[in-house]
């Protein structure tokens, strides 16, 4: 059927033929018959921009391929189809005392999407990104054949081009993932409220390696001596003996309530300087310094998942998530970006600052050793000019943008930010010389 599709930011919807194949043979048939506008796979649509859209072409809805085929608890491996959501995977693994090593900020992502974006989480400084834990994957290529790829040996170049490749090397059908044992489904959380950005950067750099998960929120509306004040939250998986007695009877329980769903009738402009400052003040005040608090998965990792379709809160014009990474030596760029956003009149309430560990072998994988910062900015006049200014700072410092989040950058910015881009492009051309796999993003950025 014809469908109007957009990313999570809701900024650039387009119309495509949305097809839901019944089996993998059906996927291959559609790919082989694709015409000039090509085809792209789509999961749960949580990329913020346009990588899972294909104006005038075909979009493959992969969510029906949602079988968990096998769990090997002894070896710490799980064999899944690409349409399995991380939410479903967690629900299946936790009763067995197992856990995916990498989870992004939402559980509503498919395994195929997590591979295509090489998603990361609050634990990248320890666990790396999603692709680091993929032991093999089955990739349907442009000629309709299926190749089983592993991180090493024959086919490894295509494996790593697929990890972070935004679906442009083929359709991931199935994957074997590494999982790790846990005693409980809870975290022991330490929270610190800090007075300004310099203190936040200093505290987050001090002893992050003691924690499996680490993230900070900062106030993007504060100015002057309070610029970038924030809340640093770090945690480790709770052991059974660390749980309060009332939780020990079901230590692997998974509590994931949905409080309400945002209606699709809200106007743009609800987040403005007044409401943004009020929210930021409330968020800062509600998070006093406290150590050893036990929180469940949703409280710590996925607080926004309790609100259905929360992106509608930005209104029909949508919002842009600006996320970048810069090397540790370029920490002054983080300070400058926060200062410019705070002074710009553009408002962001959902702000994240994290430290990345080493990257992996994927040419288009986003994480690199350094700082990553992201802000959610409602679309309004002048936003493009602000982002262009931020681009100059980020790229000038050897940084880059996250392809799963961006929706407005340029082809030149991608090439500057990803020095191995041409290496990736050569691998892609070798398996898809006619450009069968194509998306609105790939056209926009000349990928």
UniProtKB/TrEMBL annotation:
Pfam families, A to Z: ALO (PF04030), FAD_binding_4 (PF01565)
An example Gene Ontology molecular-function term: FAD binding
Record keywords, A-Z: Oxidoreductase
SUPFAM superfamilies with a match to the protein in the record: FAD-binding/transporter-associated domain-like
Segments traversing the membrane: none
Domain of life: Bacteria
Keyword Oxidoreductase: yes
Matching PROSITE patterns: FAD_PCMH
GO cellular component, as recorded: membrane
Residues in FAD-binding PCMH-type domain copies: 11-182
The name this protein goes by in its record: Decaprenylphospho-beta-D-ribofuranose 2-oxidase
